[in-house]
Amino acid sequence: MQRVSEAYRRELEQPVVGAAHLRVSLGLIDSDAAATAAPSSEAQSYWSAPSSALAAQGAQLQSWATFEPGRWKADGKLTIPAPPGGKLLAEGYVSEALSGADGAFTPAPVLDIRFSKTHTVAGLTFGFDRVAGEWPAELRVRAWRGEALLYDEVQRPDAAAWQLDAPLERFDRLAVSFLRSSRPRRRARLSQLMFGIGLTFEDGSLTGAKQTLEVDPIGRRLPTGKFEWQAVNINRLTGAGSAGYDPDDPAGIWRYFEQRNPIRVEYGQEISRGLKWGDAAQMDWASLELTGWQEVYEGGLVEWLPGGRFFLTGQPSTEGLFAKFAATDALGLLDDTYYKGVWDGEEHSLYELALAVLEDAGVPREYEDTPPWRLWEGLKEISTTAPLPVKKHRECLQLIAHAGCCCLYVDREGYICLAPAPGGQSGVELGLGAILGSAPKVEKVASLLRVDCPATTYALGGEAKQLHKASYQVEGELALHLSWSQAGEVSATATGGSVAAAELYAAAGDITLTGNGPVELVVSGKALATSAQTASAPAPDADPSGAVEVLNNPLVTNPERAAAVAAWVRDYLLRRSTYSCATRGNPEFDPLDRVLLGTEFAARVPAQVLKNELEYSGGGLKGNLILKRGDTT
């Protein structure tokens, strides 16, 4: 559950609530450009660190308190310089020279950046003096490919965060010259430089959006995380009035909405009745720093909370005045097949298997040194002897999570998580006053007799058999991807040529043949035979006519694990009541959250969120929640 203030909760309890807001941020950034960049400057201060400005989040939002006018504020963002030899702050690029009384630099400080390879970007995003909220009045930007000058323009930024919306094609050198400061006697500062542009869709340009988050706590279905939005069809790159999102526009912005580009979604709630001191103390400074005291006391403050990190599907569409976009969470990207499961007769931890699948999937990283997943350490203590079956990456993760009695989901930061469902009540109440209707809709599933879970045992056949035999015409080199029934001790031999390389797995392989002419390839291995022993978890005081739930997870390979999985599923299925209710919209709720739900017959029924669907339209937010009752009633 996302953290919100008490003022936020009080707002949603009012008969008429303040306006809801939505913000969708899209980053069209070439992260590889920063990794290949070598920035330098001849006229920089001794504490200048240009490379820190190229980091994913830029230089830290803290600077030295220098004697330039207005840079000695007691707001916690400025630090008194350390003594000689002390640690220097990563402040980004800072020039040695100050501008004159008219703001002009003589000569202009230049930040020169050379790249080890060429890059193409839709523009550049600058963060200047983010601490003081200042920017250069005039800036010269040049780009080269080798000795050829590709771009040379003087720009006039108008904010501390500013974008140069000019496509730069295949450049390998960039120079930023600071010509004039917006205030006199200032150093040139650049705290962040991103190679690309960011687009933000807000209330004025958004005409509608829908977000769906759903998790099955026992993993019968894959989790769902998707976001769709509709915007006014105006091209932010080539000028208003152009059909820039239209796929038929050869110069349109649609070509930057490629698959796997990340977006961030944020929801805002207007606190119409102002804050108390206790409310303000609970909120982050970022939620308050741009708000005046009048808004804090009298109302109008917007409290923001994260909606999630998603990835574009690369399928924009336009219809008249509107453009539509779709995005999925990180699991939705894992559409390729994992075929590298092996059988060696040894036990392997579920943690090891999950790591192998995630690393093979190539999940996009937001930070180069941080993997985009979070795995429960307890998976290291649960093992299996089974090879992972040939399935999509996300389906393999689903099997691993199920065998470990874990939930598979993506959190609001975009991390793929395999972990047990959180326990304990949050204490948050969803009363009848928050439900659009007299009461939730209630459905009760059939009674349960028992849950059966087989434990599968794998054993090698006695003799090696041919898994694949075929003749191929090879002219020099031929790469093959082949599949076969699960086996162990797999090998490959060739007649009329040779096997130059072979990566062989339980049910598939990548083989490279060399030769000139027909080459016969034979793949051999010992077939895997299976048998099963079933563990059962009966329901207490079971109805003899109740349903029998049979689980089928090939990664469960010992009776003790089978009994644990069966009991885990049984305990969930004994919770028979499911609630559906329409609400004003609660973006703070995540699937798996535990809340107290108001019904016609009880004010505080324990329930677990299974699905949260949100719809936004013109300053209004509404939602649909599906919850599972928390006890066996």
Label this structure with key terms.
44% strand; 14-stranded mixed beta sheet; 633 residues; globular; six-stranded mixed beta sheet; single chain; 39 strands; mainly beta
Description:
The protein is built from 7 helices and 39 strands. About 2% of the residues have low confidence. The strands form 9 sheets. Strands 1, 14, 15, 16, 17, 18, 19, 20, 28, 29, 36, 37, 38 and 39 form a 14-stranded mixed beta sheet that branches. Strands 30, 31, 32, 33, 34 and 35 form a 6-stranded mixed beta sheet that branches. It is globular and about 90 Å long. With 633 residues, it is mainly β. A hairpin with a 2-residue loop joins strand 19 and strand 20.
* Oligomerization status of the protein chains: single chain
Most strands sheet: 14 strands, mixed
Helix content: under 10%
Tally of strands: 39
Spatial gap, N to C terminus: 25 Å
Structural class by helix and strand composition: mainly beta
In round numbers, the mean pLDDT is 87
Please give the count of helices: 7
Q: Which term fits the overall shape?
A: globular
Low-confidence stretches: 236-243, 289-293
In what range is the share of β-strand residues? 35-45%
Gyration radius, in Å: 30 Å
